[in-house]
Design brief:
Elements: H1 11-28, H2 36-62, H3 67-76, H4 88-98, H5 121-131
Helix pairs in contact: 1-2, 3-4
């Protein structure tokens, strides 16, 4: 699968990033045993948040999001076969699910977002402005 230029997924890069982050987490807690899995899982979450944040910043700068860009992001966050997902909205919802958020992107005409920690919040708010015109 060819990946878009904005996202360069690679299992070895992902693994390396998470390994280093988990190591530093362990170091901060003086390498106390029994927390290795927690360190790894926290590092995975941080990696995913970083990937989404970087993606959204690039999109904001470019002013557009292609389906190939979203497929690359979906692949990066661990979604199998994102090329089989039919549209942008469905891809964003799958990314939300993969990152432990309610798959709410573009689902309701509301004036507020119920998930203040969701990284897609700014995009949702832009859609709400369009809906309310």
């Amino acid at each position: 699968m060819e990946t878009p230029s904005r996202i360069k997924p690679g299992d070895s890069n992902r693994h390396q990033w998470i390994s280093v982050a988990a190591y530093y987490k362990a170091e901060i807690r003086d390498f106390q045993p029994g927390k290795e899995l927690d360190d790894w899982l926290e590092a995975e979450i941080e990696y995913t948040k970083f990937q989404i944040q970087s993606f959204l910043l690039c999109c904001e700068e470019d002013g557009s999001v292609s389906i190939a860009d979203l497929q690359g992001l979906a692949y990066t966050v661990g979604i199998a076969h994102p090329e089989l997902i039919p549209g942008k909205v469905e891809l964003v919802r799958e990314i939300q699910k993969a990152t432990a958020h309610r798959p709410c992107f573009q689902t309701e005409n509301r004036n507020f977002c119920e998930e203040p920690e969701c990284q897609w919040r700014a995009e949702c708010r832009k859609l709400i402005v369009v809906w309310n015109r």
